[in-house]
User: Fold this.
Amino acid sequence: MARPRTTTRTVEHPELSEVSLQQVLEALVDPVRRLVVTQLVRAGEDLSCGTFEAPVSLSTLTHHFNVLREAGVIRQYYVGTAKMNTLRADEMERRFPGLLTAVLAASAAEERAREV
Assistant:
């Protein structure tokens, strides 16, 4: 019996020209989503969904990935069965200059202040 044909799984992403500043800010206001973005920056490479450390369940983390993707902050793609995540840093910088850097710097400063 022949194996059924499978199609390549793809994930829809918005064009950043269609994403509003409000949408990006709402995505980045959540501390779990900022944690995801911070982990991508620190890794310096694409990460699969299962490699993130977050204080939420996997289903909740999936929701956070979706919000980030729909806001244009991350891009997701499949490698086999793994869903990979990459930060759209260069695209974000062109669309909203300095925004991602400023938000991540402020978040890191806030985290350091909490540790003291």
DSSP finds five helices and three strands in the chain. Residues 99-115 form the longest helix (17 residues).
